[in-house]
Specification:
2 copies of one chain form a homodimer.
Chain A lengths: L2 H13 L4 E2 L2 H4 L16 E3 L4 H14 L2 E5 L17 E5 L6 E5 L4 E5 L4 H10 L2 E2 L12 H6 L7 H4 L6 E7 L5 E4 L12 H5 L8 E8 L1 E2 L3 E9 L2 H14 L4 E8 H10 L13 E9 L5 H14 L5 E4 L3 H20 L8 E2 L5 H15 L4 E7 L4 E7 L9 H18 L15 H6 L3 H14 L20
Parallel strand pairs in A: 2-4, 3-4
Antiparallel strand pairs in A: 1-2, 5-6, 6-10, 7-11, 8-9, 8-10, 12-14, 12-15, 13-14, 13-17, 16-18, 17-18
Helix pairs in contact in A: 1-3, 8-10, 9-11, 12-13
Keywords (chains A, B): FAD, Flavoprotein
Pfam family, one (chains A, B): FAD_binding_4
Organism (chains A, B): Billgrantia ethanolica
Chain lengths: 478, 478
């Protein structure tokens, strides 16, 4: 028996035959991510049902020097969860760990397994008249453990924060197989270094999140959604400040979309109607939500008036029903699909100070135009977070083999613009493998030393998530 | 010249004579904290004016194996900033680093020096029609760098989070004297391990915070303050849930105070009038704030009605002016002074799930009564954070020399009760030296290894803040 056969036999003994997948055909859905990317084939895919089973598998890998990667819903966009192409890894899928462990409405908290699908978490919260705020396009398939490992963002960050601000407690299987139990349901706990914060955003390189205590809010009882036409990006930024100042902390989403976004949405979903008679250059999709007797529609109408008076709003559609609000959100969501329909394109996920958004978009657009005059820039995103997806649709006639080099040049140019505003080259997607070179390029020697040092404290043999965020250690091939 | 004389000469050369204090009399205010505690005398007190000067001092200490401790406003309550009594430390005071570096109202952010007094930060924000939410009793003297190092809390945490959630960027002098510049003004930045999170709450053991970019909100334009009488702690908890559900996210503070709190406040500030005709068992001081045209007084009146209907409110005083609101807050603040006037007493700072608060107070009160029947328990705090200060006023006749042993027994009993609810023995004050034994007792071997490992990555020689949070390394006396 080879080393690998031994491992498969051990996993089968630990998890049962049903818990281990070795046939290449059955592994297919574990080796390809949402965007269609794939790298290598795993040593095996294992599907533990409990934290103890995760710990047993990880412990075995640790003792035997086997590399491993945790896998959630496979909706990440930086190739972090894909099994490696050089060193065979064990894929540890959390898909069978989907229990809601408990919900405490008086404490506004719920405890869940790491494999729970985000949408199920949100539904369970709603059934208890509560609300779990994390909202993103992939919520029907992403897992909460993955959301935690990648510190997920989405459309409600401006009000509720990223995943980091929505976690009260964590349970993590460490790279040596020990279970770290930090499942406290406390809103305040200030004891020394907060290990929880390190696991959040570590992309599975310091441990595997098997459970979490999440922070809930009361379920919003009313919401107001509007799609506003604005003359420029700069006007959208000024409208954001106005909205914050007029609507207290009741603003939940504030999404910028240029005209091209609407057109892409209509291409992907022809049943959607254009809510405007005119083609305006930019739009803002905003949502106010509240619990209790707040006059939300009055607030929104007042905002619209003030926006027109300040000449930052040209026109607007206020949703008069939940269905109509859904139609407006469908534009935002279909637009992502519309980009895919146009074929391969460059996606970025950058952030700058909110006050620099307009200038950043302008400069990035100019840089792209200089490099590739017939490419189309589509800059949309979360104004309240300073987070833009400055994407580029290449000219239709570009040969497929020329795309990678073109995208690399364009990405480099956009990142240089972002550097000029002291921005970030990864605002919410994380680093994984895709952003690693750009990430490392921007670190000092000291920063690299600190990151490597932290990794070594948790995983001295570099067996867990090796090669994500930081380069993998040199090792002899197995 | 001794090793110490050399150091003083070097510091004088780096900072000028004005920047170094060696006379014991002049050092007095750097060796005694707000609560009057003192431990040892420092090797010297240094007062750098810039980040570069901090780096130069730290670099010298690093090269010469000299211990150092950063010092802010000296308002911490866990003896973290006091110079050590065994190994002479250099006290690095940030008191001359008080620049507001810049404020960006469109980005809702401001950059400040680490030595800025919290109240000055709040004032500067207000001058730009913005708001920095951190609010605590010591805000007139605590420094923002200290607030960051200790991840400070206060009365507005339920709405705005602890210091951790109010920091966008940091500048830190590392224990080897290198300057780590993470002064980005980004609301979203998701690049690998977030070093910033490690410095937050590390109590000066991983680096010295010399600058920060803080997150602002729009300045509240209106507020409503009320002091409500409630029949029990359990009713206060139910009232909290009701308030969250009726007042959207406009609730800024929700403070529990038993009757004894009011009496202590009136002892400390006899000019304060008792707003009630009757002596009720418990009170809630709550505040709603908003920007924009929200009918806040309508919300509060509705809440009061609903509270009475649900029998969780017995009586209430709504402040009809800013001055009257100030009077109600003065009760909350004078109560702390009132405890001091009663002499030495046991202070704790614990948290439990909000839903366990009532039972926790009941059990803790019973435990104290069993150990010391004539002691008075005073349990007050931040309901929305599950954070209670369960303090104990000992019998007046207790001899001073008997107090430490009594407090130790009582604290141990209260902490055991808190453990029963899977709570925290330090919700907001941190660990420092005072909480270290109780903190370490509750860690697993793995947790101790991880914390020591992290410290060693940043400060392998254990020269910075040694002995805070974790025990100091063994070293030969200098």
């Amino acid at each position: 028996m080879t080393h690998h056969d031994d491992a498969v036999a051990a996993f089968t003994q630990l998890l049962g035959a049903n818990g281990v997948i070795t046939a290449a055909a059955d592994q297919e859905r574990y080796v390809r991510d949402w965007a269609g990317a794939r790298l290598g084939m795993p040593l095996a895919v294992v599907r533990p049902r409990t934290t103890e089973e995760v710990a047993a598998v990880v412990g075995y890998c640790h003792r035997n020097g086997i590399c491993m990667v945790a896998q959630g819903g496979h909706t990440g966009l930086v190739k972090g969860a894909l099994p490696d192409s050089r060193t065979p890894e064990v894929v540890i899928s959390l898909e069978r760990m989907t229990r809601i462990r408990g919900l405490d409405p008086l404490n506004f908290s719920m405890a869940v397994d790491g494999g729970c699908i985000l949408e199920e978490v949100k539904r369970a919260a709603e059934e208890a008249d509560c609300f779990f705020p994390l909202s993103l396009g992939a919520q029907g398939s992403c897992q909460i453990g993955g959301n935690i490992a990648t510190n997920a963002g989405g459309v409600n960050v401006l009000r509720y924060g990223m995943m980091r601000e929505l976690v009260l407690g964590l349970e993590v299987v460490l790279p040596d197989g020990e279970i770290w139990s930090g499942m406290k349901a406390l809103h305040k706990d200030n004891r020394g270094y907060d290990l929880k914060q390190l696991f959040l955003g570590s992309e599975g390189t310091l441990g595997i999140v098997t459970g979490a205590v999440l922070k809930l809010t009361p379920r919003p009882e009313q919401s107001q959604t509007a799609l506003l036409a604005v003359p420029s990006v700069e006007a959208a930024v000024r409208l954001y400040a106005l909205t914050r100042r007029r609507c207290s902390d009741l603003l939940s989403a504030f999404e910028l979309m240029p005209r091209l976004c609407l057109e892409l949405a209509f291409e992907a979903a022809p049943q959607l109607a254009d809510p405007f008679d005119e083609a305006y250059p930019y739009h803002v999709l905003l949502e106010l939500t509240a619990t209790g007797p707040v006059d939300l529609s009055g607030l929104l109408e007042g905002l619209l008036e003030a926006g027109m008076e300040h000449e930052v709003v040209l026109d607007g559609v206020l949703a008069s029903s939940v269905a109509q609000a859904g139609q407006l959100w469908a534009i935002r969501e279909s637009m992502v699909e519309g980009q895919l329909l146009r074929g391969e394109h460059l996606r970025t996920d950058v952030s700058v100070p909110i006050s620099s958004i307009a200038e950043c978009v302008e400069q990035a657009t100019a840089e792209v135009a200089a490099l590739s005059p017939t490419s189309q820039v589509i800059a949309y995103g979360h104004i309240g977070d300073g987070n833009l997806h400055i994407n580029v649709l290449p000219p239709a006639e570009t040969p497929a083999e020329a795309l990678p080099a073109l995208f690399e040049r364009l990405e480099r140019a956009i990142f240089t613009v972002v550097d000029g505003f002291d921005g970030s080259i990864s605002a919410e997607h994380g680093i994984g493998r895709s952003k690693q070179a750009a990430f490392l390029d921007r670190l000092t020697v000291t920063e690299r030393r600190l990151l490597a040092g932290i990794k070594a404290v948790f995983d001295p043999d570099d067996l867990m998530g090796a090669g994500r965020i930081q380069p993998a250690s040199e090792r002899s091939s197995s």
